[in-house]
Amino acid sequence: MTSSTRISSAYRQWLRAMRVAPALTAALWIAAPAAHADDAAGVTPFSSAKAARAPEPWRFTSLPNKTPTRFEVVQQGGQRVLKVEADQSYGNLVHATQVPLNASTTLAWRWRVDDFVKDADLRTRAGDDGAAKLCVFFDFPTERLSFGERTRLALARRTTGEQVPSEALCYVWDNKEAKGTALVNAFTQRMRMVVLESGPAATPGTWLSERRNLLADYRRVFGDEAGDTMPDVVAIAVSADADNTQGHGLAFFSDIDLRSIGSTRSAGGFVAGRPGTGE
Question: Whose C-alpha in 61, 137, 179, 222 is 20 to 30 A from the C-alpha of 235?
Answer without folding.
Answer: 179
